[in-house]
Amino acid sequence: MSEHDWKYVRTNSKGESVFRKDTNESLEFVTNYLDDKDIPYEICKTAGLIWIDNIAEVTYVYYWTTGRWAIRKANKKYKKHYHSKGIDDFVTNYLNKYADEQMTYYEDEHIACYSYPNCDISPSGCIVISGDNVERYGHRD
Predict the structure, then answer these.
(1) pLDDT of the residue at 28
(2) Residues in the chain with pLDDT values less than 70
(3) Selection from 47, 53, 68 nearest residue 4 by Cα
(4) Cβ-defined contacts of 48-53 (< 8 Å, 24+)
(5) Is the torsion defined by CA of 89, 22, 36, 99 positive or negative?
(6) Phi, psi of 73, deg, nearest 5
(7) Dihedrals φ, ψ of 9, to 5°?
(8) Environment class of 50 (CB within 10 Å of its CB; exposed 0-12, middle 13-18, buried 19+)
(9) Gap between the Cα atoms of 89 and 24, Å rounded
(10) Which tens digits make up the pLDDT trace of 15-26?
């Protein structure tokens, strides 16, 4: 029997057999791995899980004892969990797999302003893209 074999745990209320596969990885092992890879995370010991962010800043729920994971959704129950063999398998094969699709792209409207990136009128971003009112050192209202 290998360390990643499924084992019978119980029968649920619907009469279906429930199986479990343990990773045999400790919380310390998992956090050390994430620290070494500079991957941001947050621990929830009471639920036995870690929230892990990918490069697109999408948060995943990861259960270190079983390798189960799901994309975190605010105020929703997780109906679908996936399985990994451990933290290395999860990070290598799943964490950033869809990151390109998950990234939110936006266009900085301030970039066409002559005073980019130092706009005195709107420090968080100029809303004037182009036009007759654009001046060399900012824009007119």
Answers:
(1) 95
(2) 1-4, 74-78, 103-141
(3) 68
(4) 52/95
(5) positive
(6) -125, 125
(7) -110, -50
(8) buried
(9) 13
(10) 988 888 888 899
